[in-house]
Design brief:
By secondary structure, the protein is mainly α. It has one domain. It has a two-stranded antiparallel ribbon. The C terminus is likely disordered. The structure holds calcium ion (3 copies). The site of one calcium ion (CA) has 7 residues, from loops.
Length: 172
């Protein structure tokens, strides 16, 4: 049984930590965390201002621009957190090493892909305007009931639509 469970935990944790910026990958858990973290005025919902005000975790030097390198650094940091989580769950070092190796191998590709998602003028750099547009799109996706705020009710309305959004969560 243990053999079966461990890879599941590994993939669940890796998945939840490496997809931070992909709106379509937000899980119920992540949305709740987002609401707790970004809900500046504590009304259990996030409006577009609260959402776009947030400094991107990828912008390591906080200059408003995001480079592939910064994304890669952030992903490595996330990976470290993942490793700690895996240890907490009692995952063997062998399995942890496997995870780390495969994640490290894909970081370059993943960070390039992430930049590409936001970099609408294709110059390899995410400018503040591009980040804003991306965040607005992300907000729209998260606000699935289109009432202009992100709240727990967006989660419920996503449950009925298996396509995109939180749908992936319920398919598993
Ligand atoms: Ca930067
Ligand atoms: Ca750009
Ligand atoms: Ca909403």
């Amino acid at each position: 049984m243990k053999l079966l469970i461990t890879p599941l935990i590994v993939s669940a944790i890796v998945m939840s930590s490496s997809n931070l910026v992909y709106a379509e990958s937000y899980s119920a858990d992540k949305l709740n965390k987002l609401i707790i973290l970004e809900d500046d005025n504590c009304n259990d919902q996030i409006d577009i201002i609260e959402f776009t005000d947030t400094k991107s975790a990828y912008d390591q030097n906080q200059d408003g621009y995001i480079t592939t390198n910064e994304v890669a650094i952030k992903m490595e940091e996330d990976l470290e957190k993942t490793v700690n989580e895996l240890r907490k769950h009692g995952v063997s070092e062998t399995n942890i090493n496997k995870t780390v190796t495969s994640e490290l191998n894909s970081i370059d590709k993943e960070s390039a892909a992430l930049i590409k998602k936001m970099d609408s003028d294709n110059d390899g750099l995410v400018e503040p305007e591009e980040l804003e547009v991306f965040k607005e799109k992300q907000f729209e996706q998260l606000d699935s009931n289109k009432d202009g705020v992100i709240s727990s009710s967006d989660l419920k309305s996503k449950k009925s639509s298996p396509k995109g959004g939180f749908g992936f969560l319920y398919k598993q």
